[in-house]
Amino acid sequence: MDKNIIAQLEKITGKDGVLTTPEDLSVYGYDGTFEDHRPDVVVLPRTTEQVSQIVMLAARERIPVVTRGMGSGLAAASVPFQGGIALAMTRMNRILEIDEVNATAHVEAGVVTADLQTAVEKLGLFYPPDPSSIRHSTIGGNIACNAGGPRCLKYGVTGDYILGLTIVLADGRILHTGGKLIKDVVGYDLNALFTGSEGTLGVITEALLRLTARPKFARTALVEFAALEDASRTVNAILSAGIVPATLELMDETAIACIEEALHLGLPLDVEATLLIETDGADEASVVREIEAVANICQETGARRVKVAKDESERAKLWQARRSVSPALARKAPNKLGEDITVPRSTIPEAVRRLKAISARYGLPIVIFGHAGDGNLHPNILFDKRDPEQWAKVEQMAAEEFALALELGGTLSGEHGVGSLKRPYMQKALGPVSLEVQKRIKAALDPVNILNPGKVFPD
Amino acid sequence: MLPSGSVSKPSKDQYLNCIRCGLCLAVCPTYREYLSETTSPRGRVALARKGLEGELELSPNLARQMYACFDCMACNDLCPVGIRPADLALEMRHVQEQIQPAAWKDALFGGLIPKPGRMEFATLPLRLYEQLGLRRLVYALGLRKLFPGKIRDLEAMLPQLPQRPLRQVLPEVTQATGETRYRVGFFLGCAQSLMFAEESAASVRVLARNGCTVITPKETVCCGMPALGYGREDLVQEQARHNIELFERADVEIIVTDCATCGSTLKDYGKLLADDPAWAARAAAFSARVRDVSEFLLTIPLEKPRGRLEALVTYHDPCHLRRGQGVWKQPRELLKMIDGLEFVELPEADWCCGSAGSQLITHYETSLKVLKRKADNIASTQADYIASGCPGCQMQLNVGMRRQGLDVQVVHPIALLDRAYNGKKEK
Prior knowledge:
heterodimer, A: alpha+beta, Uridine Diphospho-n-acetylenolpyruvylglucosamine Reductase, domain 3, B: alpha/beta, Fumarate Reductase Iron-sulfur Protein, Chain B, domain 2, globular
């Protein structure tokens, strides 16, 4: 990169905010996928004002700006395929205000989600979105990908908690949206527009988040099923009975085996599937009543065993297990391709059946786990990328997974985003009219195409 | 690019399987302070891989990133895939030494550190500084303030030094008080002997009081951790063979040490020499016998201490004890045996203190940042004592307490137990 531009960047952030060695560049070229491409420079801003100046410079010089948090994304959305500036928001990590009366938190984009949760829970408040990466992902990244998580079944996704945003636009201007308001219908809903925009419309630098009361009680059950089909049928049986658990998570046998190998928690190894179900609320008796009702339903639908966690440490272990699934799969194969298709929940048993069929047809394992309660499944194909034959199969299998999701009335991604990996399937998922509308929005907000270019839209 | 052939390299499993999930970023002390990928375990694994596969040069800057790791092993413990990024950083230092050997390391890690006599001579000025009353003078006259900042911090590391290194004072055989129920070998670490002699003397007293006849071979050499930390795995192997042979001759059931770092290194001799057919079995047998002093004490019937210690005590987990050896309950249990002592758990007790052996010297700024977090946590407990069974941690904590002006005594847990055994009532 031009020395003059480096010097200008250093003037904006100070020398320690600009990284240029080959070593620095090469570790900012990846996220949580297998994709990799070096940026030309890494910049770590500390204020919205700095971001604004950086983007202004980039716009003038036509340099791509690829914003990232902690790089845990699963769609290669923050991989700088065209080089340019990797804009790492991790040092903007201040919690600016927690307003207990209005139940809001004003934070910078680089705040780690778990840190925010700890801070608000000390005050009896609650920030529900809980992607498995809560400890190694940032609020800014969560918003840019509209992250979900197990609790979304009851509490909704990241986007449901955004009251306002501070955004640096493609020309460097600073846009403030929303406020400490639950209801606000003045003008277009810009919060919603920027949520899930994956760094293509603006750089999110601050967020005003909605908080709720912390549920005081929770009960967690691990339910074992001899047949995966029974587990997937049970999901609907529970939800149709008028119970809304906080979470309803499915893990198949391979997923359980991988976690057990990594964590040694004493999970059952002779079942085809487990459901991890949690009820929560402000009243202990009703939380207990709900988990008991859930247990009864499970027994009716063929559960082999229902085990309710005895105490907080048992409960913490179960959740540690669930959060470790995705990375623990790497014990089984050098590579994995984890998708997060979403289907209407009535079709979950059918989706599971078809995924199994794809796996059998191609002869590569597909591990199935995910947020069954909201129809968001994580089929993970296990393979070795060094084997070209396997890699070719994997691409076809992924295409079939997406096709089945669309056929069942679902979509490509529930919470990971499109990034670079799902671009080829966008045409099919959205159709020409929707794509054209979205491209016009992109062109209106980023006319010179410097913000995360080449992402989301098909070529 | 790596020269092919004789260079010993990390196993491919150590880096190929990294799926770059990023979990390790959450537990890394250096990432936490700098918030940049380059300072994270995942970043170091990526650099190692790219360096070994030829995508990056094995440049001095790449090696520097490997030395920036504090080897606290929190990432090792957490990685769901089973990669050990902290170990990989050490292995990469070894790779670097093989392609670009640093001559001074031969002198320091081959010629000085494993020679107890030379170490004792080299550290004589420090003992004189204290014994001739110079240190008291420096403090009394406020001269410490005139030292440049870094020297002031290094000075603050010093505990009250012994008149003579413990190696010269401790008998080869310390008889058990009463009947001998166990014949125990004692591995006297260099730092313990030179700096924390009174604490190791206390360890031996506590062992003897509880039915152990303690054999302390005097010709032990450095466990090898310093050399390992500086990429000289080859030297560690020599030191390991020497120590193994020595304890074989001592004919003991158990080998106890009160230094967290020595303990974790000794327990690794089996792994270190696994590929050496002549030594693999002997090393494995040796390692299987090694115990941290707190770990061993809780496996035998213990006499209840008669004394009282009216104090609020907290405990810092040395990385080499908690993660290196899986020992963390035992030191707490021992402290709780003491009447009058109120134990308070330290927030983030197992987070690195920033010592990492010599990081305060080599990575001064980072080390102080990590230390500040620890010192703030200690201050929040309002404890009178911070106990920790590691000389490196103790020296670092001394600096932390001095820097923040905290009146908290840094102490080995066994030293407190020993005081309680001596039966005094203390406030």
